[in-house]
Design a protein that fits this description.
The protein has 18 helices and 12 strands. The chain is α/β, with parallel strands linked by helices and 383 residues long. Helix 15 links the parallel strand 11 and strand 12. Bound molecules: uridine-5'-diphosphate. This is Galactosyldiacylglycerol synthase.
Length: 383
């Protein structure tokens, strides 16, 4: 019988679920039939009142009241605040986690969220079920919120030296810290497409197969004025192809319906897509916010990035790090954005070549495989 594993996520943004799904698929690929992974959002299922609604509000908040999100992020970014949350708003979620443990009897609990790791550790240490390993997989890239640094877990998967520093300072012993990178779906970790494969992919996706292609996206919620930025690129006299992925932002999608470039060519505009890897593999350049998931996926797809926006708190550090590596540029204004696309899309652009080299130097497509091996090893399956 397959060994059950419990993966805890919250559906705020897309990064927690994407990371958990990538690791679950990798475990199944490496040890077929050995594990039965349950990916559950106990915030949605276990908290009737305030917290569930707060999670639902994440998308609108980051879209329309960034300052309020920043205030919430910073107010909770300490061990004392996490302790307080555990004893108050998170109690119903802790009960939901304990119930999941009782029902599923998992061989390991893995949290892809900075609050659920505390609840999992608490439930495992105080519950009536066998003592199973609790593992945190951090899905932020550089600025690691205090919540991630839970000392009561058996292992923490850390994406970057900055994250390692945060966990060590919080008192997590070195042998429990595993700096393995951020999980990324296997579709992004494939070898880069040949020219022929890319032409075929563009054809299938409704893109011109011979033109420099810009992919405009902005996380699962399509936040940060992506419609305005897409319109500006379309309106400029640039010889580029473009596609826009609006994610769950239905309003932006409606506004961009029928979008055409200056030559009258139609531009593909989509809502939430399940084949982001194909869109990235078809593109030459990504215009996006500084979301950790999209950044590592773009790096693994060999794509330089123009970052236009960030969620305050957890994404500011991503932006600074990416700009430092040379793999991305920060272009918050639409004028700057259009100029950068113009420069980088020019034939044999030296700027683009330099960014591509930087991308190749920092991509870590092997991260998911190593995270999957750590979890399956700790859960008692194949190592
Ligand atoms: N994503 C997707 N389809 C979409 C839009 C986004 O699958 O239409 C995925 C994207 O590939 C990435 C995640 O959602 O894995 C977004 O994560 P990120 O950390 O960039 O931003 P967040 O949405 O968490 O703010």
């Amino acid at each position: 019988m397959a060994i059950p594993l419990l993966f805890l996520i919250a559906d705020t943004g897309g990064g927690h679920r994407a990371g958990a799904t990538a690791v679950a698929r990798r475990i199944e690929r490496d040890s077929p039939g050995t594990f039965d992974v349950h990916i559950v959002d106990p915030v949605a299922s276990g908290s009737p009142a305030l917290l569930g609604r707060t999670a639902d509000l994440y998308g609108p908040l980051i879209q329309h009241a960034r300052w309020l999100w920043a205030a919430m992020y910073h107010a909770t970014n300490s061990r004392a605040a996490i302790r307080m949350l555990r004893g108050s708003a998170l109690r119903p979620v802790r009960d939901a986690v304990a119930q999941l443990l009782t029902c599923l009897r998992p061989a390991a609990v893995v949290s892809f969220h900075p609050l659920l790791n505390h609840l999992a550790a608490q439930a495992v240490h105080t519950g009536a079920f066998p003592r199973v390993p609790v593992i945190t997989v951090i899905t932020d890239l550089v600025d690691v919120h205090a919540g991630w640094a839970c000392r009561d877990v058996d292992a923490v998967v850390i994406p970057s030296p900055g994250g390692l520093d945060r966990c060590r300072r919080a008192g997590i012993p070195a042998h429990r810290c595993h700096q393995l990178g951020l999980p990324v779906g296997s579709a992004f970790a494939r070898p880069l497409p040949t020219d022929q494969e890319r032409r075929e992919l563009r054809h299938r996706l409704g893109l011109a197969d011979d033109r420099f292609t810009v992919l405009v996206c902005s996380g699962a919620d399509g936040s940060g004025g992506l419609d305005r930025r897409a319109q500006a690129i379309a309106a400029a006299r640039l010889d580029v192809g473009m596609a826009v992925i609006c994610g769950r932002n239905a309003r932006a999608r409606r506004r961009l319906e029928g979008l055409r470039d200056r030559a009258g060519r139609s531009i593909p505009v989509h809502g939430f897509v399940d084949d982001m890897a194909d869109w990235m593999r078809a593109a030459d350049l990504v215009v996006t916010k500084a979301g950790p998931g999209t950044i590592v996926e773009s790096l693994c797809s060999g794509l330089p990035m123009l970052l236009t926006w960030y969620i305050p708190g957890q994404e500011r550090g991503n932006l600074e790090w990416l700009v430092d590596t040379g793999a991305g540029r920060y272009v918050p204004g639409v004028g700057q954005l259009v100029d950068a696309v113009d420069e980088l899309s020019a034939p044999r652009s030296p700027g683009l070549a330099a960014m591509r080299s930087a991308v190749a130097a920092v991509a870590r497509p092997e991260a998911t495989e190593r995270i999957a091996a750590l979890i399956s090893g700790m859960a008692g399956g194949r190592t």
